[in-house]
Every structure is written in structure tokens, then in C-alpha cells.
């Protein structure tokens, strides 16, 4: 009956070719979906760009519309990319503070806590949740608050599962919050059934598959993301070797829907790779484990990266061993035909030594390839920066040539008419200060187009009270512009002074004053500035 239920949900929810429950069919589908991953991500990024365009077109005075659009952007990013989701929570918090809307402030802190939990930052999550006044929340927001508290304590209990003192208390607290969340759910809603299933897991009632999760999969019209969540947690109920195929099917189903919904904060594909490894399918286990690590790194899930990082080398080593064993068996077979019995020991010894050398060389090649990949990324970034600034300076110089040509014609006309008095008026029309401000403003905008995270990354190196933020009428100020030039490789004080029209001593004082306030040593401060990344060119490609 369990197998039939799983077959039914596969046939019902978008898998017409999977009439049987054979794991290899679902794994084949999962591999095909991995090849379409960029397409799904492109669709998500297209939605994000449309929202960003709406946000940029919204008047700054219309804080309500800005808040609503930023909320939508957060929803797109919250399970996709931690850093971007974090940026929009800060924008939401800023808007709610400007409007003095305490309800929205509390709702935004719930959003912030969600991504902090997803990233594995437990202390920061609980600190954020502790500042939320639940009395000011609507029922829907209070439900999210209790759900998030339940998840945070649940994840913490899993993290402390080898500690008999902390894990039981964390788990008990999680159950209390689940109960509070269930009390706010509408009867038979997705949220109620999901939380009742979660409560079964936390209370250890896993002798039979959860009827709540099965009901959701068989009778509810779920989104891709919801289907991925339900399939993943339902797999936890299928334990033991007798249910291995059902467990793999559900985890594969969860991973497929995670890909289709462009969810990077995901558990299914990691659990699937672990299960395949235990079943002896090392090749697929290694493939999916690598994908799990890529997803965790893309999202910024620190705890997940640690867990995967602990398992990935073991799986990789086993995959190499399996491949190497196959190679060894083939060589032994050929050698047993080609050589006589008395030479077998000598030849085996020679082969062993050669394989040892081969492993060492392969390791060197792998390390070299890693370095080459890093170098290529840096070269692509440098090339992009150069392309942007070549275009920028070409436009600027072209503009000045047109202005010079216009002035030249004007002067020639006035000289030819001997109108010498108007020549002085022509020179007065040239506003050097305004031209320099225009030049700096254009430079600032081009620089921030290439390094959109420069300002927050720069301020992260300073204490909060010493942070430097542009005023409303500025793009960059002098302090930021000096270190922007440093990021472009222009760190000579004399060159910087000539560009910014300051003395060398002034530039030196600016740099020393800021470095003295940094939270890291001066040498590390310069390295941290140079480590600020430009737009991800490889990802755009």
C-alpha cells in the first residue's frame, strides 16, 4: 500500500513516465532536471529583475510601494541566496523604521530570522527573534513567528544530537512552538497538516508514514517548493533496508522539485546522496553530493556546508577507489594473459609503484586546475572591469572632444569677427568644478555597477559608529572614492591625489585615519578591500 501511494503521487504530480516506482527512473529524471537548472534559475532571475525595475521606478517618497516590492524580492531570494535576501530585509527594516511602523518592523525581523536560521546562524537567529513583540503581530505573522521558533530549536536539537544535555530541551521547546503554531492554523490547511507531520517527527511517532504528509501529496494542489518540502520530510518515515527504494524515490522527488523551484536552501539532494552512498551507488552519490555542496555555497548555508564538507571527501574517496579498483582489475586481467606466473609478483610491484606516482601526479594536476580556475575567474573579473571603464572613459573623452570642438568653432568665429570681448565670456562658460563633479559622479556610478556590494562590504570592516555611508545627494564620497580607486589597483598616493585633486599628504591622512578605525589590522584591511568581488561574470554567462 505504501508503494502504491508513492506511485499515485508520482503519476499525479507531473511524472507521467514514472508508472513504476523504480528508483533509476526518478534518478534519471533528476539528472535531466540538473541539466535544466540554469533555465529555472534564469526564470527566477527574470522575475527578480522585473521586481528590481519596479523598485527603481517607484518614487522614493512612496515608502509603502517600496516596502511591498522589497517584500516580494525577499520572497524570491529567501530560499535562493542568503546575501541578497539579507540586503532586502535591511531595506524593509529601514523603511518600516522611517514610517515608524512597529508591526512591519516585527514582521521584517521574522523574515531576517528565517534566513539566519537557514544559513545556520543560530545565535543571530535567536537574538533577532528575541526583539520581536508578538503582541503587535497579526495571527498570520504570529504563526510565522512560532513556526520559525520551532524550526530554529529543531535545527539546534539536530545540531546538538550528540549532546544528551542540550538536545532534549531544544527538541521539547521546538514541540511547544509547533503546538502554538498549529493553534493558529486554519483547519485542514497546508500549514496545519505540515506542522502536524512535523510534530510526529519531533515526538518520534514514526512507526508508520505520516498520514498528514501523505494527504498533502495525494490530495492537495501543491507548489513545486511545497511538494519538495513534503516529499523530503515524508522520506524520514521510511527507515530500514526494506524501505530503501521508497526513501530514495521520495528524496529524488524532493530534489527534482527543489530544482524546479530554484531552491538552493535544500536538504533533499544531500540526504539522497547519503542514501545512495549507503546503498553502494557511489557514482550517483558523488554527483548529487557535489550538487548539494554547490547549492549550499550558492545560498550561503554555513551549517549545511560543514555537514556536506564532512561527508563529501569520504564519498569522493570511495568513488576514486571504485574507479581505481575497476582499473586495477582490468590491468590484472590483461597482465595475467600476457605474462608468465613467475613474473606476476614483479609486474604487480611495478604497477603498484606506477599507480602511486599516477595518484601523486593526478593530485598535482587537480591542484593546478583549481588554481587555474581561480586565476581564470580573476582574469574574467579584471577583463570585465577594464571593459566597463574603457567604455566609460571612451564616452567621457568623446563628450569632451565634442565640447572642445564646439568651443574651438565658437572661438574661431569670434576671432574672425574680431569680437575679442566675448572670448572671455566663452571661457567663463567652462565650469571646471561642475565638470569634475560630473566626472566623479559618472565614475562612482560605473564603479558601483561593477562592485554593487562595495559600500556594505567596506563598512563591514569598520565599527558601526565609524562606518562611512554616502549622503542622499552622493553616490560615493571622498573616503569611499579613495578605496574604490585602490580596489581598481590604483593605490599610489600621488596618483590618487592627482585624480581627486588633493595633496599627497591629504590622501595619506585619509587612508591612515580610516585604517586606524578598522576592526582588522592595516595590512589585512588592504587585502580585504582587494577581496571585494565584482559582479559574478561567470554566473551571468
Could you explain how this protein is built, in words?
- With 541 residues, this protein is mainly α.
- It is globular and about 105 Å long.
- 76% of the residues lie in helices and 0% in strands.
- Helix 2 packs parallel to helix 13 and helix 10 packs antiparallel against helix 11.
- It contains 25 helices and no strands.
- The C terminus is likely disordered.
Structural class: mainly alpha
Number of helices: 25
- How many strands, what sense, and barrel or not for the largest sheet? none
Distance between the termini: 47 Å
Strand content: under 5%
Which geometry do the CA atoms define?
Answer: globular
Order of helices and strands: HHHHHHHHHHHHHHHHHHHHHHHHH
| Rg over C-alpha atoms, rounded to the nearest angstrom | 30 Å
Helix content: over 70%
Amino acid at each position: 500500500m505504501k508503494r502504491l501511494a508513492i506511485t499515485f503521487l508520482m503519476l499525479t504530480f507531473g511524472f507521467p513516465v514514472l508508472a513504476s516506482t523504480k528508483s533509476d527512473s526518478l534518478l534519471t529524471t533528476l539528472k535531466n532536471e540538473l541539466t535544466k537548472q540554469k533555465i529555472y534559475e534564469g526564470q527566477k532571475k527574470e522575475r527578480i529583475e522585473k521586481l528590481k525595475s519596479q523598485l527603481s521606478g517607484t518614487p522614493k517618497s512612496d515608502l509603502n510601494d517600496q516596502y511591498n516590492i522589497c517584500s516580494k524580492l525577499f520572497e524570491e531570494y529567501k530560499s535562493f541566496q542568503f546575501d541578497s535576501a539579507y540586503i532586502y530585509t535591511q531595506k524593509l527594516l529601514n523603511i518600516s523604521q522611517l514610517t515608524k511602523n512597529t508591526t512591519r518592523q516585527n514582521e521584517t525581523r521574522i523574515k531576517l530570522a528565517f534566513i539566519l536560521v537557514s544559513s545556520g546562524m543560530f545565535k543571530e537567529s535567536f537574538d533577532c527573534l528575541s526583539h520581536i513583540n508578538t503582541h503587535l503581530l497579526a495571527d498570520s505573522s504570529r504563526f510565522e513567528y512560532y513556526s520559525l521558533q520551532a524550526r530554529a530549536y529543531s535545527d539546534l536539537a539536530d545540531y546538538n544530537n550528540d549532546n544528551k544535555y542540550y538536545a532534549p530541551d531544544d527538541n521539547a521547546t521546538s514541540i511547544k512552538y509547533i503546538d502554538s503554531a498549529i493553534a493558529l492554523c486554519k483547519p485542514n490547511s497546508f500549514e496545519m497538516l505540515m506542522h502536524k507531520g512535523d510534530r510526529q517527527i519531533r515526538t518520534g511517532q514514526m512507526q508508520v508514514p505520516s498520514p498528514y504528509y501523505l494527504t498533502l501529496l495525494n490530495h492537495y494542489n501543491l507548489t513545486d517548493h511545497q511538494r519538495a518540502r513534503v516529499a523530503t520530510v515524508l522520506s524520514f518515515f521510511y527507515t530500514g533496508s526494506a524501505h530503501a527504494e521508497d526513501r530514495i524515490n521520495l528524496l529524488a522527488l524532493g530534489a527534482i522539485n527543489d530544482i524546479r523551484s530554484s531552491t538552493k536552501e535544500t536538504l533533499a539532494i544531500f540526504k539522497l546522496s547519503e542514501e545512495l552512498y549507503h546503498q553502494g551507488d557511489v557514482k550517483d552519490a558523488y554527483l548529487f553530493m557535489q550538487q548539494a555542496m554547490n547549492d549550499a555555497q550558492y545560498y550561503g548555508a554555513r551549517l549545511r556546508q560543514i555537514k556536506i564538507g564532512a561527508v563529501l571527501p569520504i564519498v569522493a574517496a570511495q568513488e576514486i577507489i571504485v574507479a581505481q579498483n575497476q582499473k586495477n582489475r582490468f590491468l590484472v586481467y590483461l597482465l595475467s594473459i600476457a605474462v608468465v606466473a613467475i613474473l606476476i609478483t614483479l609486474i604487480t610491484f611495478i604497477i603498484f609503484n606506477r599507480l602511486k606516482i599516477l595518484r601523486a601526479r593526478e593530485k598535482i594536476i587537480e591542484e593546478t586546475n583549481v588554481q587555474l580556475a581561480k586565476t581564470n575567474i580573476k582574469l574574467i573579473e579584471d577583463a570585465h572591469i577594464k571593459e566597463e571603464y574603457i567604455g566609460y572613459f571612451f564616452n567621457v573623452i568623446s563628450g569632451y572632444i565634442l565640447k572642445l570642438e564646439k568651443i574651438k568653432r565658437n572661438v574661431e568665429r569670434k576671432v574672425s569677427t574680431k569680437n575679442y570681448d566675448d572670448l572671455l565670456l566663452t571661457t567663463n562658460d567652462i565650469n571646471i568644478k561642475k565638470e569634475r563633479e560630473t566626472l566623479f559622479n559618472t565614475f562612482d556610478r560605473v564603479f558601483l555597477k561593477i562592485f554593487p556590494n562595495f559600500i556594505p562590504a567596506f563598512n563591514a570592516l569598520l565599527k558601526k559608529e565609524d562606518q562611512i555611508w554616502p549622503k542622499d545627494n552622493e553616490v560615493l564620497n571622498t573616503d569611499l572614492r579613495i578605496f574604490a580607486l585602490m580596489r581598481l589597483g590604483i593605490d599610489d598616493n600621488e596618483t590618487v591625489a592627482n585624480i581627486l585633486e588633493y595633496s599627497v599628504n591629504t590622501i595619506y591622512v585619509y587612508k591612515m585615519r580610516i585604517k586606524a578605525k578598522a576592526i582588522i589590522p592595516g595590512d589585512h584591511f588592504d587585502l580585504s578591500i582587494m577581496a571585494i568581488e565584482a559582479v559574478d561574470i561567470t554566473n551571468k554567462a
